[in-house]
Each structure stands twice: as structure tokens, then as C-alpha cells.
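agent: user wants the structure for CRISPR type III-B/RAMP module RAMP protein Cmr1 from Desulfobacter postgatei 2ac9. delegating to structure tool.
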Amino acid sequence: MARILTTDESVIDPDFKISGAKFIQHEYELELLTPMAGGGTKSWVPDLENPVRTQSIKGQLRFWWRTMQNEVNPTDFKTKEDRLWGSTKEASTVRLSVNLTKKPTIKRIPWGGKDGKYLQFDNVQVPGFVLFPFQNKPFQPGDDCDLIGDLSFILKVTCLPEHKNEVCNSIKLWTLFGGLGARSRRGCGSLYCKEIAEQFQTTGDIDQFVNNLAENQNGNLSTSPYPRLSGSQFRSITTTTNNAAAMEWCAYLDRYGAFRQGQGVGRRAGAGNQPGRSYWPEPDAMRLITGKSSPNHQPNHPAGKWFPRGAYGLPIITEFRNAGGDPPGKYTLLPAGAKQERWPSPVILKVTRLGGGNIARLCLILNDKGPQILKLESSIISYTLAPAEHPLDHTDKEMVEPTNILQSRENPYDGLLRYLEMTEVA
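agent: tool returned. relaying C-alpha cells verbatim.
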């Protein structure tokens, strides 16, 4: 990084200018790489007049700033955070403004593929599970089923000189691993900034950047009480040299979707429109817990009562659609606790354009131990999972063999990285 000069000099940094008596300022030119969902004040609905909200960006920057911290005292942590990003009692010293340079392209998205498997967006088939609120929804006049395609804007950032490095690093992390709108952890609303991309010619440069931010911190995966870079895992694949980032993203998410529940991967091949039986243990775990099962689907998974897919984010909603006798209704696996109905996935799947033009698939698994009490809820039961039934209690769990998903006694995160063919960055 370039040296930060004193405020009485004409230039603070080659990238920053003095703004007023105390502040420095810089402008970032950003554009969308992948379609953006929602982003307005109403859930899943884009705001045509104000598609990029500074409040949302600041929330993202605040989140990524937190991932760089190593503060163990909650009071000191909050004081430090509020001083930079603001609170109800004090104003933020970071100021943001947005100027659109290319108005958003709004496109209504009809369903494509069979059984609502895909959303068709221009020449890209977006996997339906990525935008699950739209799945199986009829498109009638007045429905808000739109995505934002092309969009570019200038983000003006003003901060105090002493906060420059941590603000810049927050912006870089947001650009690499965050985004705009809903489902950004699954790659929606991914961003590209040429100035930032030039600092990352290879995925090895990204890996070094993440490691530097976690330097001198202690952490192991799935141990932190809040999402952190220290102890996280970063993997990547460098793919194409063209500009088809959205197409590469859809192929990436297709593979993730197959891992979760694809025919012949996450589940056995079915007959006709009927899905095959899952290779995952959760359906049989629910049959064991409820004591209900169809004659053709007696619980026989060797892992017993285990819910490994909870490691990829909560809640998870399951509905049995097989022959009569299986557990009726919908079942929701979620954190147990006051006002805690969801746990954002620590697994972040993105695509980015590197400085040289290559498109890369990125997978960052943040260090986050997640909720310690989980429950399974339905209209007929409220069941609290035992510790051995939690997602990461994998050491004695046997899986169906052969399987394309988790192997026996395999950590759910290791199994995901293996299936996605994500290798450690050299």
C-alpha cells in the first residue's frame, strides 16, 4: 500500500484526495457481473428509481469489516464498530454516495426448463433454487418477478485518513465476495471494479489478500462466534477468458444444486416426474423422528438421525411428496432461540473477473460455528436436535456407498469443496 500522507499535504494517496478539512475521498466505478435480485425496500422487488442503496452498501461493508476483526470483548467490539460505521447514538465517519452511470436493465423472467428448474434470463438459465421465492409461482400481471441485468455506478467513499486501509479492505472484500440485492452469497448481484481487479491478476493474489487480513489471528473453521476470515477456507477455479461471467456463474450454481439434490448426485434417479430417493440422511432422519414412513421408504440410511446440509445455511424446508405414509406437511430445520429463525450460510459462492480478464469461480467458507441449538418444526412436532445430530458432528457418520456427495465421516465443507472440484490455491 502507498504511504498515507498528512492532511496538510496536497495528496493523501495516489488513489485518494483530500475532502474538506479532515476527510479523504475516492470514487470506485462498479458494474454488475451477474443478475441482481431485489435490492429495494420491498423484499425481492427491485427499486427502479433507486436500485443501488447506500444503506445496503454500508451494511455490506460493515459485515466485511467485522470478518477482519479479532476482538474478543463484545463491548470493545461494538465501540470500535460504532465509531467507524455509526449507530443510533453516533454518526458514521464513513460517507457513501452513489451516482448511476448506466440505468438498470429490468427484465421479467419467465420459467424455462422442466418443472420450474430454471429461470430464463436472456441467454442464461439461472438455476431456480437460487431464486427460490420465484419457484412454481404463476406469472400474472402485477407480479414483481424481475431481475436487474446491466447496471453500472460510481461509489464515492469519504472517510478519515486513519480509517483508509480498513475501509478500502472492506470495499475489496465486498467486491470480491459480496454483492447487491438478495442471494448475494449464492452469487446474485456480483460486482466488478476494474481498479480493484487489477490488484488481483490471479486467484493466488486473492488468497494472499485474505491470508494477510487474517494474519496474526487465531482461528479454526467452525469455531468463531461470528463470521471471520481467520480460520476460513478459500478455494477457486480459474475458468474462461471471455466476458460470460453470468453463464459461468450459472454453470457453477448448477453444480452446487446437483450436490444438494440433483438426480443421480444428491438423490437417486427417479421414475418419470417422481424424484428419486435422497442420498442425504435428512429424509430418513425425519422419518425416524416422526415415526412415519411409506412402505416403500422405510428409514435405512446408515447415518441415522443427522442433518449435514444445515452446515450450508438455515432454515431448510422439507416437504415429502412420495406415497402416503411419509411424514405429512412441511418440516423446517432452523436455529432454536428468541428472534433467531435463520443462519446465513458461511459458504459464499461467487464468480469474479480477474485483472487479466479470466473469469474465476470463488468459494469462501467463513469461520462461523453457527447456532448451537437446532430444532425441527412442523405442524405435528417440535423436536430439538441432540448434539450428535448436528450438521458438523460427522466423525462417526456413515454414508450411502457409492455416493457422489459426502463420503463417510467427511466434514460437510470438505465434501462440498471436493465435489465442486475446488483445489487449494497454490
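agent: one observation worth passing along. The chain has two domains: 11-110+149-199, 247-424.
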